[in-house]
Design goal:
The structure holds 2 protein chains of 2 kinds. Chain A has 15 helices and 5 strands. Chain A is mainly α. Chain A has 2 domains: about 30-135, no CATH class; about 140-415, Orthogonal Bundle (ABC transporter involved in vitamin B12 uptake, BtuC). The longest helix of chain A is centred in the first third of the chain and has 28 residues, at about 30-55. By secondary structure, chain B is of the alpha/beta class. Chain B has 17 helices and 24 strands. Classes of the chains: A mainly alpha, B alpha/beta. At the A-B interface, helix 10 and helix 11 of A face helix 2, strand 8, helix 5, helix 6 and helix 16 of B.
């Protein structure tokens, strides 16, 4: 061994900067990605230019106000063919620039803008020569965003504490079921509470198996989904069919907020909705505050990131996880009530239609952040609402295809076009105390 | 605060981890606790910090017998543990990490971030532990992260600080700074326990040294008079020669030539930045550097496990840049990986199976689709004997081997093939002194056979013991190429810390 006691002489190092550095050269895969994005945009442009534009005639009329609104906005009248050619040129310009030069760090944003332009093109093409109530589509976007955003919030609460929850769908469905039954028997508010409790109980099952018995969390989630699906279908056919009065709950009415509710477009969208929708916005704000500004949030995130560290500081990992998972489950159950008490007032088998899974996608797309997840949920809510409303007017797109849209959008979004989000470091990892 | 352990005994199924251990640590002094892996140091410290409870024996603080049921109680009693693997949340700020569990709040539950930042600043000023409370942990150098850990235990009022292998992840310069911090803590009356297997550091910083072996205290030493050789012999229980005997290298033709090799990650950051490296036949090139500066990527680029963005890699005259890992491995690169359990072996396979993991598909170990177990066993028996793998039962599961013997098994597999280039990543990490001695001899023997050898190590001592030439990596770049005989650890340490880059 060489004598290196010299290494211990004083020679202080002052600068400890982050060693992170951006590369100046684009790697091959980045260049390829930029080219692919450019090609996608050019293809979208070609579709608008050669398929949509020639096939559309006349004026597309978009309604911006409901007939009984206080302030009426004139309907937007757009000459469809000309507008489509203009939009095609915009897409071609963006795509061409992306392909040749690349927008680099902004390319994801540009891709997003291109999709928006494309969606507008589809709407103009579908509406050509007809009238389309844009405002009612926007209002229903907010409504349809609600269960997805709440589902995402449910997932965020669980996963921020380190427990993967793919049982959101089951929690939604369970909440929808008990919500309608209790709502029918004892009134809407009791139904809402019952739905919330149902979600909490299902989450308790998840927490118990995941934390105490360290069962694989994916499996528990699948089991919860299947269990609730089977149980609610069974109870529907065995009990609700025979007693229709148990499946007929009052629907929460839209509550218009004075003054704010009269603002054109914004008013009907955000200030003339049901209590469940308002609660969704409230919960997103509240959860953001709780997670990032309180002691509870700091501890919850710490057990989701590094449970060993939290444990070494005397924080009970299992207690913290239990609390977060049950809170998350209650949000999920509450979200379920939207399907029954917030819309139709009755329960149908499997009526949640995968909203829980789309919520999961919104959670990931939103980077495990409530506000981000709300933004993602709005995209899914919009595509859902658009497909519903387009089915109402006379378009040449088959309705079955339109119904696929939200799921298609989910795949496109999650497939990684948007870059990778970083989950909590200990997400899904059981914690074993030494 | 004075700490005394009296007759601590702790048994786990099949192992007596601590056997009647007694020691004393005094206020304002540093007690170094040295011993090999498995000597019972960690168990003892886990008992002290309340993670385990002893089967018998007493923990006495200032004359009062203590009973810790969980880590919280040990913290309350004034014992602070700085773990080898930092207990930090990388995405939190320094202040958030420090106050976690004792957060200052307003209105009962709302975090008072300002106060948290101030508390951190106060401690960091009082003890000279410069750190920005608002910085995110993941952006900080390891040395700074360690300061955060120290601030964490000081904030909780620790009087006894236990450092578990504190210098394992530090650069030589950071080690000097760390020793400065220890001096400062000492002067303020803290009791310090320093767990290490680096004898030189124990001699440099400790006021007294206690040696553990096989769960027992085997002796005490006075750092003023003891030598490394004496301590090593006490640790191992036999005479140990710490120097590696080797003759000057006789480098031949280039075997590995890397030209302008660049590798980027998914986010466009450079993992390897324009690497030019040449390893010649019959020489050992040591790659020095703090962990995480591109050494892993360097090895994985050569072995074809990661693909590179630019540049070329040549083995003798063949361009292997586009080869797949099996082609590279088969045609000329032996690889002792840095994490033996992750990449070097399969714990649930037998020793014999592990010894043919790289060649099971070829003659004579398989014929068609059938494995030839007699050929496999025969070769395994020879290798186990030649490379001194103990116990020499080839049908044992690899996971039953000790770290040193598992590593010898991997070395046996890789060194027994006739290839021109051998890569050894952290060849002696976490293994006993006896095995280190043996593996170093094997590496030098291989060199003398005319093989080109690339050794990656975060241990400067190992780099200096083995290398004929030394390259230093920092931030994905080779920042220095030096002749081992013409440099010294201080110079290499400066390069490791990023000077001149």
């Amino acid at each position: 061994m060489s004598d290196n006691s010299a290494a211990y002489e004083k020679s202080p190092i002052e600068s400890y900067e982050s060693t992170e550095k951006k590369s100046n050269v684009l790697s091959k895969s980045k260049v390829r990605r930029a080219k692919i994005l450019g090609i996608i945009m050019l293809l979208l442009s070609a579709v608008v230019m050669f398929v949509l534009a020639p096939a559309s005639q006349g004026i597309a009329t978009f309604g911006l106000s409901f007939p009984d609104d206080k302030f009426q906005l004139d309907a937007l009248a757009i000459p469809s063919t000309a507008a489509l050619y203009v939009l095609a040129m915009v897409l071609a310009f963006l795509g061409g620039t992306q392909f040749l030069k690349g927008f680099q760090r902004k390319s994801t944003l540009i891709l997003g803008i291109s999709f928006v332009v494309f969606v507008i093109s589809i709407m103009i093409w579908a509406t050509a020569g007809q009238e389309f109530s844009l405002i009612s589509m926007l209002v229903s976007t907010i409504a349809r965003t609600t269960p997805i955003a709440l589902g995402a919030l449910s997932g965020i609460l669980c996963e921020r504490s380190g427990v993967v929850n793919i049982g959101i769908e089951g929690m939604l469905l369970g909440g929808a079921f008990t919500g309608v039954v209790m709502g029918s028997l004892l009134g809407g508010w009791v139904g809402l509470i019952a739905a919330t409790i149902t979600g909490g109980v299902l989450a308790l099952l998840l927490a118990f198996l995941a934390i105490n018995y360290r069962v694989d969390q994916i499996i528990i989630g699948v089991v919860i989904n299947l269990l609730v699906l089977g149980l609610t279908s069974f109870l529907t056919s065995q009990i609700l069919v025979g007693r229709p009065e148990w499946n007929d709950a009052p629907i929460f009415p839209a509550i218009k907020i004075p003054i704010l509710g009269d603002i054109p477009i914004i008013g009907p969208m955000f200030f003339d909705q049901t209590v469940i929708v308002y609660a969704m916005f409230g919960l997103v704000a509240l959860t953001t505050f709780l997670l990032f500004r309180t002691r509870w949030g700091l501890r919850t995130r710490s057990v989701g990131e590094n449970p060993k560290a939290a444990d070494s500081l005397g924080i009970s990992v299992s207690k913290t996880r239990y609390l977060a998972v049950i809170y998350g489950g209650m949000v999920g159950g509450f979200a379920g009530a939207w399907f029954t008490l917030g819309t139709v007032g009755r329960f149908d088998e499997g009526m949640t239609g995968g909203a829980g899974f789309i919520g999961l996608a919104a959670m990931i797309f939103g980077g495990w952040n409530p506000i981000g997840a709300l933004g993602a949920a709005l995209i899914f809510g919009f595509s859902d609402s658009l497909s519903q409303k387009l089915a109402l007017i006379n378009t040449s797109i088959p309705t079955e295809f339109l119904a696929m849209t939200p799921y298609l959008v989910t795949i496109v979004v999650v497939a990684g076009l948007v870059g990778r989000a970083r989950p909590p470091a200990a997400d899904g990892q059981p914690f074993e105390k030494q | 605060m004075e700490l005394e352990l009296r007759g601590i005994t702790k048994a786990f199924p099949g192992v007596l981890a601590n056997d009647d251990v007694s020691l004393t640590a005094r206020s304002g002094q540093v007690l170094a606790l040295i011993g090999e892996n498995g000597a019972g140091k960690s168990t003892l410290m886990n008992i002290l910090s309340g993670i385990y409870r002893p089967d018998s024996g007493e923990i006495i603080l200032n004359g009062v017998v203590q009973k810790f049921n969980d880590p919280g109680e040990a913290i309350k009693a004034g014992i602070g543990m700085v773990h080898q693997h930092f207990m930090l949340v990388p995405v939190f700020t320094v202040a958030e990490n420090v106050v976690l569990g004792v957060e200052p709040t307003v209105f009962g539950n709302v975090l008072n971030t300002k106060k948290a930042n101030k508390e951190v600043e106060e401690i960091s000023q009082k003890y000279g532990l410069a750190v920005d409370p608002k910085a995110k942990i993941e952006d900080l150098a390891v040395g700074i992260q360690q300061r955060v850990e120290i601030i964490k235990v000081l904030l909780r009022g620790a009087k006894i600080l236990v450092f578990d292998e504190p210098t394992a992840v530090l650069t030589p310069q950071e080690v000097i700074e760390f020793f400065g911090i220890v001096d400062e803590l000492k002067s303020r009356g803290a009791t310090i326990i320093f767990i290490t297997h680096k004898l030189k550091e124990a001699l440099a910083i400790a006021d007294s040294i206690t040696v553990l072996r096989g769960g027992k205290v085997v002796g005490h030493a006075d750092p003023k008079t003891a030598t490394q050789e004496e301590l090593a012999s006490m640790m191992v229980g036999r005479e140990i020669d710490l120097t590696v005997n080797k003759t000057p290298a006789k480098p031949g033709a280039p075997v590995l030539t890397m030209s302008s090799v660049t590798m980027t990650d998914d986010f466009g950051r450079d993992l390897l930045d324009n690497i030019n490296l040449e390893v010649r036949a019959g020489e050992i090139v040591g790659v020095a550097g703090i962990q995480g500066n591109g050494q892993t990527e360097l090895i994985e680029a050569i072995t074809g496990l990661l693909s590179i963005a630019k540049g070329s890699i040549k083995l003798k005259d063949t361009d292997i840049t586009a080869f797949n890992p099996r082609q590279i491995h088969r045609d000329g690169v032996a690889h002792v990986p840095e994490d033996r359990n992750e990449m070097g072996m399969i714990g649930s396979f037998t020793v014999a199976e592990n010894l043919v993991l790289d060649s099971y598909y070829s003659q004579p170990y398989s014929r068609g689709v059938r494995l030839q177990s007699s050929a496999i066993d025969e070769s395994a028996r020879t290798l186990v004997k030649d490379y001194d793998v103990r116990p020499a039962h080839i049908e044992n599961m690899a996971s039953t081997l000790s770290g040193g013997n598992a590593q010898k098994m991997i070395v046996a597999r890789e060194f027994s093939r006739d290839v021109p280039l051998v890569l050894c990543a952290q060849p002696t990490r976490g293994i006993d002194v006896g095995s280190i001695e043996y593996i170093h001899e094997q590496i030098v023997r291989k060199r003398d056979e005319g093989i080109a050898i690339l050794v990656v190590s975060t241990e400067l001592d190992e780099i200096f013991a083995l290398s004929d030439r030394i390259v230093v990596m920092f931030d994905g770049k080779i920042v220095a190429t030096l002749n081992a005989s013409e440099t010294n650890p201080t110079e290499v340490g400066l390069y490791m810390a990023g000077k001149n880059s």
